[in-house]
Amino acid sequence: MLTTRKCTILHLIRSHILKNTSRSFYFVIVGHYDNTVIKMKKNNHDLDEFTAHAALDLIDENIWLLNNMYLKTMDKFNGWFVSAFNTSAMYYALIMLHMNFIILHDIKQEDGIKHFFTDVYDLHIKVWYFL
Amino acid sequence: MSPTQWDLPVELCCRPMAFVTLTGLDVVYNAVHRAVWDAFCANRRADRVPISFKVLPGDHEYPKCRPKRTSYEWYIPKGILKTGWMNKHLNLVPALVVVFYELDWDEPQWKEKQSECATRVEIVRQSLQGRNTKVAVVLIQKKTPLPPGEDVIASERAAALCNACELSGKSLFVLPHTDHLVGYIIRLENAFYEHAQTYYYTEIRRVKSHKEFLNKTTHQLLFVRHQFKIAFFSELKQDTQNALKNYRTAYNLVHELRAHETNILEIKTMAGFINYKICRLCFQHNTPLDAIAQFRKHIDLCKKKIGSAELSFEHAAWMSKQFQAFGDLFDEAIKLGLTAIQTQNPGFYYQQAAYYAQERKQLAKSLCNHEASVMYPNPDPLETQTGVLDFYGQRSWRQGILSFDLSDPEKEKVGVLAIQLKERNVAHSEVIITLLSNAVAQFKKYKCPRMKSHLMVQMGEEYYYAKDYTKALKLLDYVMCDYRSEGWWTLLTSILTTALKCSYLMAQLKDYITYSLELLGRASTLKDDQKSRIEKNLINVLMNESPDPEPDCDIFAVKTAQKLWADRISLAGSNIFTIGVQDFVPFVQCKAKFHAPSFHVDVPVEFDIYLKADCPHPIRFSKLCVSFNNQEYNQFCVIEEASKANEVLENLTQGKMCLVPGKTRKLLFKFVAKTEDVGKKIEITSVDLALGNETGRCVVLNWQGGGGDAASSQEALQAARSFKRRPKLPDNEVHWDSIIIQASTMIISRVPNISVHLRHEPPALTNEMYCLVVTVQSHEKTQIRDVKLTAGLKPGQDANLTQKTHVTLHGTELCDESYPALLTDIPVGDLHPGEQLEKMLYVRCGTVGSRMFLVYVSYLINTTAEEKEIVCKCHKDETVTIETVFPFDVAVKFVSTKFEHLERVYADIPFLLMTDLLSASPWALTIVSSELQLAPSMTTVDQLESQVDNVVLQTGESASECFCLRCPSLGNVEGGVATGHYIISWKRTSAMENIPVIRTVITLPHVIVENIPLHVNADLPSFGRVRESLPVKYHLQNKTDFVQDVEISVEPSDAFMFSGLKQIRLRILPGTEQEMLYNFYPLMAGYQQLPSLNINLLRFPNFTNQLLRRFIPTSIFVKPQGRLMDDTSIAAA
């Protein structure tokens, strides 16, 4: 069951992802309680969700060490690159906005992923405020 | 586990140490030799030199040295590294052979002994023909040697012995068998170590010297071999830096070899060995990053070198081993003090090893699926003559063949078949599980809980494949909660699906049902057709039938499982399972909600149980019961329907026992609370929903409290945050998300129908018996019984108030400390409808301030609720805040007899005490009487009679009294002298006759008493008359114990003429009095100043006229001459 807000984010993200990446990927937005908020995938199976979930370990540890939201490619697993983006680095106080974006991708592409994350974050904020 | 083909050889993994053999020691029968050997090998700590010792007989045959090759021109190597080479140099070919020989310098038969020793050395040399191995001789001596140079015989004989044995002086040692054996041994072994290093150095030189004969085309393998040997010798020499350098070169050379399907295994094997050595040395040098970089490079270079497709599982096995070995090295380094981090720890390598092991299993499964009829080839192509391979990594059926063409394809085929058949017998799951559990242990250590969970899932699945379902379930169960609590439903579903298979295959009823319940629930991401299948199976199980097998299960396992299920069905026994749902997400959701947060005891308690099923088909339940904290209510809240097992699927849409998917079912319950529970909380402790029935199988879903399962708290949170507008539903339906669980309610007493009024006249006055009239009137329709009154100070206020407040029903007597602050449960009888009663209460407040008073009326009444006769206890309370004030203010002051204010009084001189009583009460007060109780130090001058008896004071009015007192001399009293008490007896003017009078005691202030040396008082009339003589007598009293010299003078005044001594100097004896008589003759009328008397005491200069003026009058009223007098004087004239 998706709320309107989720649907909108999903729609925006879908159009973005399709524009930006063509290879297989697995993208997930993880909420404050480590729950999945939104997930999208292309050409993969459950194992990748396990990988994304396990990546939270690293986010948990690294979030206090880094000042930027983009956590770069943190992990490489089974041929997947794991990149993450944590919104709380900027908004400690706004717990509602605390989200982790995790993407598994098969080509190493730091800049592209960073742009993608920034775009998603932008959309996320807009959707949050204007819907 | 026994070592497999893929395990690295022991001689590769150990730390190479210089090999030294000791001969000539009889460690079995000779105690001295035994002690020497023990000193060499026992307790070798890290600070001892790295040598591995071995005791061998003197005539031991060492491996023969092959004749030296003079030319490499026609030599074609058959492989890279011989399997025996490392072991040969670690354990067989010594760097140094030590010959022990018992010989003292003063040996009488020296010649014979010397030649025997020389023979022994010769035997050893013979055996080592062609090798560079050093020989050393140690003479075991009984005597302590003299310092070098002093023993002439010793040095001569030593030289002779060296000569005879063809030894250099450096190779002859003496070991005195004395107390300091260990010290000598340590010195010896250091010397041995030097010899060994020289040996390995020459060996390295020897190998290096071969290089120039090699050419790149035919001797590629030798390049690698020699480089490896140099590195290995360097390691034996403990020159790890050079060893590392040479291994690196060797590693590069290995990859320069021409790889082909036939030699790829050999190349990989050697690359793996060298890589292992490099990583090991890097860790040893504390450069873990180099080790990791080398390992990554190694993996990158080798991972594509799969080799023969038919044997690709071998590549996976090899890869797995590489990762595992690196993980082991990493872990070992950590144990020695290296610090690892979350992103770089051995766990990842074990995990990767496990991944390749899984791949190996997959490949083996697809490549080795030969039919059972395929026999293992005979003769075994994997057997060799010696039982071992000549070179590492070669195929046993074509050892030493370097050609890239397969010379004998038939032989090749048989060999491959043999390997494949052998692979089939490998316990892959066991390997995978071991690796995964290693990884799990590491991730646990480096705080990666989710990674750990992920690997545990894999372990669980592997156990499932290995048909160890119990272990699989244990692991899966363990991680399920993590995924469930974080809400990763896809993952949970995937785990549950495996778990369901396990429980099916073991015919574990309860687990099977639990997993089914959750897979049907809203947390499951299964498709509807799968859910339908599971629901059908669940219903079958509930009807005591076997479920259909789960898809993709092993056929043989399914057969066994079907038998197990059949046994389960025939087996009688407990078929009721209670499943607590708080830890998972079942397909039925439940919420309990009381209609109100509290209920009056005379109305029935009502609550709803909402149920919702998430399964694809409607389901019927057989029983619903609700449990409360007071179990007596449980019986009222049960819904049960006697339905037979086969009816479960019938009449689905009828009746309230049926749950339609997606629809919320509301069930209303009602019961009358017990009157004992008034003021208590009624709580739903659990809701039990039974599926199936007791004749078949019955599952009881048990919700703790008012419902909710593992996912509901998160859902509630999301629902609360969501702005989504919910679609409108028909009136009788509700949105599931909008139902908020309310699992408890309060039972409160019936609403009272009486009125309680209080009548009183505030404020209360301190200590008075304050009257509070309570009026209770019943408005009930029936008689009320057992009316009880509780009145007094409201509990919970300041504790001091309780001490200073007393309540009584009897106003005629004053109450004291023994009276309580609160009167409880005063029975006042019954009241008929409309009847009214009045009760007087008297409150005595000892201190001022405000107090809250409580009047609480309780009664019993018979009433009905839901056609049930109940006796209700009702109560009504009133509180009132009453201010207590002082009834009056009392002011006290001391004045002189001239009404002048006194700071202090003078001993023996009368003064006045004035009291002033100012009414502060808003109500009129009657002062019944007043009394002055003097302290013993005070005496009264005249009688102490009350002057204010029966005076009525209105607000603001005051009553004053005046008493003349005297204080005898007491000497100097610190802080003054107590005066006494002033007691006022009073009551309200409005109070009734029988109300007691209140005595208020006021403590009078202390007064400072001062002694004066001389007291003067004057006797003079109260007034004078113009031109009439006015006799004045001054009394001068000496109050001291001394004779006083007094100077007295009288100053003239305009208004008077006078006669008497104008100036005099006299003496007054102690305690006596002197009188001075004057006749004043007033000249003017009016208030006139008297001629002032000045007294000067020579002894007391402080005694001033100022002080004097306090005692004697300074003025007098002079009346004019009377008319009558006037007439008589005229007449006289």
UniProtKB/TrEMBL annotation, chain A:
It comes from the Eukaryota. This is Trafficking protein particle complex subunit 2. The chain crosses the membrane at residues 80-104. Belongs to the TRAPP small subunits family. Sedlin subfamily. Its main location: cytoplasm. It is found in: Cytoplasm, Perinuclear region. GO terms for biological process: endoplasmic reticulum to Golgi vesicle-mediated transport. It comes from Piliocolobus tephrosceles (Ugandan red Colobus). Pfam families: Sedlin_N.
Automatic annotation (TrEMBL), chain B:
Residues 1037-1095 form the Trafficking protein particle complex subunit 11 C-terminal domain. InterPro entries: TPC11 (IPR021773), TRAPPC11_C (IPR025876). GO terms for cellular component: Golgi apparatus. GO terms for biological process: vesicle-mediated transport. The keyword Transport applies. It is found in: Golgi apparatus, cis-Golgi network. It comes from the Eukaryota. Belongs to the TRAPPC11 family. Involved in endoplasmic reticulum to Golgi apparatus trafficking at a very early stage. This is Trafficking protein particle complex subunit 11. It comes from Piliocolobus tephrosceles. The gene is TRAPPC11.
